[in-house]
Amino acid sequence: MSETSIAATPRILAYGPQPEGLGARERDVNVEFVGSSRELFERLTERPVHLVICLHAPPAFEGIEAVKGIRRFDATVPVVLASRVQNTMLSLQAIQSQVTWSVGLAGDESVEEALSDLVVDASEWLEKQAA
Q1: Gene3D superfamilies, per this entry (predicted)?
Q2: What is the pLDDT of residue 23?
Q3: Contact indicator for 78, 100 with CB cutoff of 8 Å
């Protein structure tokens, strides 16, 4: 099971495409991108995770299915579901799969850039929590 205290260097797992140039600023947060749900679940078992960000952009990234798998493994780790799709069905699925937060991605930039912005914001939030 995952430990959600911020005692160690905070760790974010992001299920989605790794944006270029994300590592421009050194952070006190370890961010790891994974491109498949299988890789996501493997990384979850390696060491504690403080936050998981799941992109929902079918068919390449099935965020809802990834969240369901995470919840079977660990019901306590905070999970953010990120998507450009904002409709009742997705909202109901997010609630049913116990998403901690659901975030709409900006539509005026690429999915990679919007995901990058979300990861940066989440990293800054975790840094404040650890301080």
Answers
A1: 3.40.50.2300
A2: 53
A3: yes
